[in-house]
Amino acid sequence: MFSFLVKKCISNAEQYEKSEVRTAYGNLASLVGIFLNIVLCALKFLAGTIANSVSITADAINNLSDAGSSLIALVSFKLSSKPADEDHPFGHARYECIASMIVATLILFLGIELISSSVDKILHPEIVVFSWLSFAILTLSIAVKLYMFLYNRKYGRLIHSSVMQATAADSISDAIATAAVLISMVISPLIHFNLDGYVGVVVACFILLAGYGIIKEALNEILGQAPSKELVHEIAKRIEGTSGVLGMHDLIVHDYGANRLFASVHVEVDYREDVFKSHDMIDNLEREFKQDMNIEMVIHMDPVVANDSKLNELKEYMNLGVKEIDKECSLHDFRMVPGETHTNLIFDVVVPFHVKMSNVEIQKRLEEHIKKKDHMYFLVITYDRLYV
């Protein structure tokens, strides 16, 4: 059904990177979600009343909150599609993250309420009545929720929507929860023991788990997280495959939501190369990143000395010392400034976040390392963090 609606309602439906197409997908998914959840809520209230089941009624309330979540998603797609302005030059795409947080908060609140009502049902059990109508409604609900999970996951990934992916996670937890309720309704009369309250607690745990997962993902996006290894590899492949580039370092990627990637990197070039030629190469690279990957890339050009055997020997020796601290540590921007009494070795060291040594401890280790070679060398080190 959703694919049919996509064909009928969305122009240029396969151009997922376009803002208007992305917004159209979000609006359509939200409207379909509102309709389906309201229908499921009404049917489950009917089933819960017939079966005298708190877990079915709670599941109905869950669907009502899902309809509210879809309404919040609808508003978030409208807000996130707003163009960049003077106060928000990076756009408004992170409204979706805020919407995900609101959805997750509603889910957590519902889970807590369901635990309370389920415990009360355990302490004061009532007879659950099996009904074929209730059975059919719950079976239909499971099928609908599985379908909602599939289309929200598929299109959420295609348009990079955190709200749709949060809806997908919520839908699969709803399907599992409803399946548990259905099993309880069937088994309770057979074993002459009311499982309704206990199943309600299980359902609540699934709901709380889904809410926690959505909050965690939304917080990661709001706080900022490292780019994917695939993205880093593609960026490095493009830069290092360019004629005239000797290396790269200090890559930083900022993600401000779907299709809003900003990045900066230092690119090493031979100091002997004509500066205008190198600058032209850098300009072309920045333009290609925008055209091919929709990344606003800022590239800093680092001239390096590549033909000095003494410098290269010292750089390799210090690199060995850096790798002894941690194999993921690295150095760059290595240069040498000779003097009458001593020689300064100036360079940057990139330290991954999992390395717990302080900069002072690392400095001491590296100074001990260079003194083994010659006491005339002094180290001037800038410490960087690994952002990818």
Automatic annotation (TrEMBL):
Membrane topology according to the record: Multi-pass membrane protein
Molecular function GO terms recorded: monoatomic cation transmembrane transporter activity
Compartments where found: Membrane
Pfam families registered for this protein in UniProt: Cation_efflux, ZT_dimer
Keywords in alphabetical order: Membrane, Transmembrane, Transmembrane helix, Transport
Residue span(s) of domain Cation efflux protein cytoplasmic: 227-303
Residue intervals passing through the bilayer: 28-47, 97-115, 127-150, 171-191, 197-215
InterPro entries associated with the record: Cation_efflux, Cation_efflux_CTD, Cation_efflux_CTD_sf, Cation_efflux_TM, Cation_efflux_TMD_sf, CDF_Transporter
Coiled coil ranges: none
Superkingdom to which the source organism belongs: Bacteria
Single GO cellular component term: membrane
SUPFAM superfamilies: Cation efflux protein cytoplasmic domain-like, Cation efflux protein transmembrane domain-like
Location, primary (coarse class): membrane
Residues of the Cation efflux protein transmembrane domain: 31-223
Similarity remark: Belongs to the cation diffusion facilitator (CDF) transporter (TC 2.A.4) family.
Protein name: Cation diffusion facilitator family transporter
